[in-house]
Design a protein that fits this description.
The complex is a heterodimer. By secondary structure, chain A is an all-beta fold. Chain A has strands spanning 4-6, 11-14, 19-25, 32-38, 45-50, 54-58, 61-66, 71-76, 85-92, 102-103, 107-112. In chain A, 0% of the residues lie in helices and 53% in strands. In chain A, strands 2, 4, 5, 9, 10 and 11 form a six-stranded mixed β-sheet that branches. In chain A, a hairpin with a 2-residue loop joins strand 6 (54-58) and strand 7 (61-66). The radius of gyration of chain A is 13 Å and the shape is globular. The model of chain A has no long low-confidence stretch (mean pLDDT 92). Chain B is an all-beta fold. In chain B, 0% of the residues lie in helices and 50% in strands. Chain B contains no helices and eleven strands. In chain B, strands 2, 4, 5, 6, 9, 10 and 11 form a seven-stranded mixed β-sheet that branches. A four-stranded antiparallel β-sheet of chain B has the order 1-3-8-7, with no helix packed on it. Classes of the chains: A mainly beta, B mainly beta. Chains A and B meet through strand 4, strand 5, strand 9 and strand 10 of A and strand 4, strand 5, strand 9 and strand 10 of B.
Chain lengths: 113, 113
């Protein structure tokens, strides 16, 4: 069974520090990787996506992908209280299904003022 | 900025009743999806829709579920005979291509009594 694994947390990080969120996936054929943020009772909001090995930066967010290790991470620099949310890792790949995203259970992040 | 919209935001129904959840995807997007999230659980794929037909469905999407694009803008999910376990948040999503980022609507909270 194709799986996406995340540590459920909670992960507590002081305001201004770097938050590091991790995700592993079981299918080596996976091709696209997405990070969504979900506030309680709200819908997933796309933060970043990454297709190629290495780092991709967007403002305070950096996504890192290592396909050999089947590992994708999200770094949040200068963490703010508004970053407190559940972060969902989602994976797309032909072996998961033609078009669907497979989600992890999410990591709950709390930024401590 | 274009966004996916969903109506109603909250639907309460009696077990055995039919419900229709409505979505308006982003206008230039070609791929449409329904996901659901039971409280406290992960986001689960239900169905994808492209070129006026279902392109993929999960094992959750059984005969009581159907989808339709009745006109050029709406995308609907019908549950024919609701069960208690259908209580969940239902999210519509759309994407421009089948493999790239999917944007989620705000969701419909379905409560089956």
């Amino acid at each position: 069974q194709k799986e996406v694994e995340q540590n459920s947390g909670p992960l507590s990080v002081p305001e201004g520090a770097i938050a590091s969120l991790n995700c592993t996936y079981s299918d080596r054929g996976s091709q696209s990787f997405f990070w969504y943020r979900q506030y309680s009772g709200k819908s997933p909001e796309l933060i970043m996506f990454i297709y190629s090995n290495g780092d991709k930066e967007d403002g305070r967010f950096t996504a890192q992908l290592n396909k050999a290790s089947q590992y994708v991470s999200l770094l949040i620099r200068d963490s703010q209280p508004s970053d407190s949310a559940t972060y969902l890792c989602a994976v797309w790949g032909p072996n998961f299904g033609n078009e669907k995203l497979t989600f992890g259970t999410g990591t709950r992040l709390t930024i401590i003022p | 900025e274009p966004e996916v919209t969903q109506t109603p935001s909250h639907q309460v129904t009696q077990m055995g009743q039919e419900v229709i959840l409505r979505c308006v995807p982003i206008s230039n997007h070609l791929y449409f999806y329904w996901y659901r999230q039971i409280l406290g659980q992960k986001v689960e794929f239900l169905v994808s829709f492209y070129n006026n037909e279902i392109s993929e469905k999960s094992e959750i999407f059984d005969d009581q579920f159907s989808v339709e694009r009745p006109d050029g803008s709406n995308f609907t999910l019908k549950i024919r005979s609701t069960k208690l376990e259908d209580s969940a948040m239902y999210f519509c999503a759309s994407s421009e291509k089948g493999y790239n980022e999917q944007f989620f609507g705000p969701g419909t909270r379905l409560t089956v009594l």
